[in-house]
Amino acid sequence: MTVRSILHYPDPRLRKKAQPVAVVNDDIRALVDDMAETMYQAPGIGLAAIQIDVPKRVVVIDCSTQRSDLKVFINPVITRREGTYGIEEGCLSVPGIFEEVERAHTIEVRALDRDGKPFTLVAHDLLAVCIQHELDHLDGKVFVDYLSRLKQQRIRKKLEKQQRLAI
Ligand code: GNR
Ligand code: NI
User: Fold this and answer.
1) pLDDT for the residue 138
2) How far apart are CA 58 and CA 31, in angstroms?
């Protein structure tokens, strides 16, 4: 298992549309393990493969306070959305920025697990928000895309400056 480096907004690689996984094999399980280690080390409550520059439809999430409930979603699809809900979101690819985004309160998601077995999950609240946030990443979308142009511009300038100073 390896901690991988996370791409930062506005890196154009975060804009790629991730491709479906054809077969859940040992290579995919190794990717899942690296993603989990990267997420826990960050620390974050979710990570999409695109954030470590792997444009595949793979997501890991652990919203539990004990950090002991790893959920793996391969080729996830949201099949039902109900209600509205919003919390201040953050993103490991947009460090230091927290803004509320409107999401569905309850969702039903279908995906494959790390053994390639299909499952359906109904999620509410934080877990539902996290799943929607991660599925956006798979389509090249970042939570700041929901904010005003002015806020997006400020965030881009701030992060570009941080990245210049970090080199
Ligand atoms: O660690 C994370 N926290 C978070 C908080 C509120 C809403 C969504 C998230 S996901 C984020 C990790 C991340 O960037 N996943 O893509
Ligand atoms: Ni994110």
Assistant:
1) 98
2) 9
